[in-house]
DNA sequence: TCAAAAGTGTTGCGTTTACACCCATGT
DNA sequence: ACATGGGTGTAAACGCAACACTTTTGA
């Protein structure tokens, strides 16, 4: 903390953060939730913030997003896309330009991670999951960033099929519909939703069924021939 | 160029560039064109590149885009929106993260600038206008960036009314339609275009008419109550 | 008066929306 | 048997594309 810390006063540093969405069952409804990390140093020590970190000199922006994501959650997102570059002068005491990504996490992956942590007894103290629409006051401008990410998610769900990225490999149409309803915050007609989903060409029906309640529901699988991830303007696969 | 130049080997610098679109009449058709600057130093000396520059320590990203735009073209764009942050490790010899914006310029503003430069005799040698769909090989990854900006423009034109940003204050529906046709690269039905434009609520008919050829066409004005510029995720007015 | 662009009317088609209805299963 | 969600059918409403048609000017 001698020379390099002093130098932070007159250089612009580049950080990468990610808004990671997943779905969570709370009672009979499902809701969007996201993981936050508690800051352990100034500025904003003790407040919740988006997971992220500094960009390394020899890694691309995409790679930095994946790396910081893995370091905090230990998981690969099913979808990752650049959101926006935030660079207001006063958003941090030192000058920081944040390249923010947003990501989707599969429900089963989240479960697997939680179970693994519980078994290993290393449940991270500084990570917690929050309801995306009911957040506390976050560090920096992160509340605005989450709001913008939510807006992008709601928009994108309207003209693409990314919502699959929040579910396990196999899912019923009702489960998929509930995800859409949680994101769009309105009820969808099951009959019409079914026709639209089946007609999109992105769903492959299986011969397996989800049983347990009333009439068994057919399980579907996402057609991976159709691209899920956004490979960015350069079409590069990270 | 002593110590700071040496230091560029191990720091990441932030640059800002802008893809600036305008429309140009070539014969009886109109086409999208954009200004490029010839590089006067390595890397890529002599090649054409997007206007831009380094981010100052005490200016926001938006301000840097506006400033570098003014320094090269001397104009205020009618629309300015962040496009994407490019950060591949090998896109430049030293490590550079470029925050790229895209912008629209009014046709009459371009004319005014050209006339002013001609009168003052200071027509910039290093700036030239190119057809957006027929560019030479540009410096860095700027060809990819322009392609992406074109894609965004075409997309955005489909669900918003930003095309006005390319025309003068008053315009006929035929002129507006020609702009759409140039961007979307297909003919539009004049009758249906008229209904859609009038029904959008963003056009104010005037009592003035464009005369000269056949039946005079009513001039319209853009309704500035409807926001043209994208104020970004934070809703901030630059 | 004629060509050509401005502007209006009408029709057909495909998509979405609303909702009635049947099917299959656990309790 | 019956309640409940799974799944199908159908008709009205809406938006959009195609195109015939009228209007108004300059030449």
From TrEMBL, chains A, B:
<dbReference type="InterPro" id="IPR054105">
    <property type="entry name" value="WHD_NrtR"/>
</dbReference>
<feature type="domain" description="Nudix hydrolase">
    <location>
        <begin position="11"/>
        <end position="153"/>
    </location>
</feature>
<dbReference type="InterPro" id="IPR036388">
    <property type="entry name" value="WH-like_DNA-bd_sf"/>
</dbReference>
<dbReference type="Pfam" id="PF00293">
    <property type="entry name" value="NUDIX"/>
</dbReference>
<protein>
    <submittedName>
        <fullName>NUDIX domain-containing protein</fullName>
    </submittedName>
</protein>
<dbReference type="InterPro" id="IPR000086">
    <property type="entry name" value="NUDIX_hydrolase_dom"/>
</dbReference>
<dbReference type="InterPro" id="IPR015797">
    <property type="entry name" value="NUDIX_hydrolase-like_dom_sf"/>
</dbReference>
<dbReference type="InterPro" id="IPR036390">
    <property type="entry name" value="WH_DNA-bd_sf"/>
</dbReference>
<dbReference type="Pfam" id="PF21906">
    <property type="entry name" value="WHD_NrtR"/>
</dbReference>
